[in-house]
Amino acid sequence: MKALVTGANGFTGSHLVKLLEKRGDVVVGLVRKSSNCHRISDCNLELVYGDITDRDSLTAAMTGVDWVFHTAAYVELGIVDGERMARVNIEGTRAVLEVAQGIGVSKMVYCSTIGVFGDTKGKVVNETFQREQADFSGEYDRTKYQAQQLVDEFASKGFPVVSILPSGIFGADDPHFGPVIQQFMKGGLKVWAGGARITGIVHVDDLVAGMILAAEKGTNGEKYIISAGDLSTRDMFGILSQSAGIPIPMEVPKPLVILAGNILDPIGRIFNWQPPISRERVHYIYERCVRVDATKARQELGWNPRSVLEILDEIATIMKRS
């Protein structure tokens, strides 16, 4: 097979490129000229340079491919450039869909998020759940939801696209929570906020394996939740604590976290700075809770991921060596 991966230099995209190459597939990667491509420096893929909204670049990248994996996204919580996020997440997805449809690719796999379900208030949901949250928790929530609506619209008109909805994506090279785990494993994380917050977890390598299974076996127009399970942040640090022999971080009182968010948020907006805590991050820590059931992917795709405990143990072992 010949496959295009948008966002090939990213965390998920780079792991997908490596697994496709390991299978013997020919891979094309769409990246920006300014992209840092160190994650794929040892790969043999063909690189096409261009913006995700540039249809000429997309056409050049997609010509002759069988599968398109759309992983490119602007992922951030807190203080973000809403216009840029909408351009990448919504208009970029629209461009990929339109070009893929025009060229006639045999299958597109879209990397969505369980966040499209909105706040489930702790209720465990599956792919049949209809979003109940009327508003949006932030720009990422809004733009990924609207991008998913576009994908669903194209699917309803017969375009062969499947959506993968991952929970929190973990791995030793995870750019989001990975540095936090690394700091903890080195004994440098003394305090934390929101120990009761529930986090869904999937290993990045299991996610990309699920994406390939979706290309091979996924029913056009369907969604597949990809999650190994969930646990509280406190329990996660408890597991890592046993591996590292380091005490669990002290819980910062909720009123202090809220106060810090209220103070730092406007400062961050004035100085175009991403503070460690903001009003949106406070909302995600204490108010928003999305829990999911990945049975469908296991049954229909034959997806068999690592357990949450195996994921955390593997990451801890790798980080102890580094």
Layout of strands and helices, then pairs:
Blueprint: E1 2-6, H1 11-23, E2 26-31, E3 46-49, H2 55-62, E4 67-70, H3 82-103, E5 107-111, E6 124-125, H4 139-156, E7 161-166, E8 168-170, H5 178-185, E9 191-192, E10 198-203, H6 204-217, E11 223-226, E12 229-232, H7 233-244, E13 250-251, H8 254-271, H9 279-286, E14 291-292, H10 295-301, H11 308-321
Parallel strand pairs: 1-2, 1-4, 2-3, 4-5, 5-7, 6-14, 7-11, 8-10, 9-13
Antiparallel strand pairs: 10-12
Helix pairs in contact: 1-6, 2-3, 3-4, 7-11, 8-9
Write a concise keyword list for the protein shown above:
three-stranded mixed sheet, seven-stranded parallel sheet, single chain, alpha/beta, Rossmann fold, 322 residues, 11 helices
Short description:
By secondary structure, the protein is α/β, with parallel strands linked by helices. The protein is 44% helix and 17% strand.
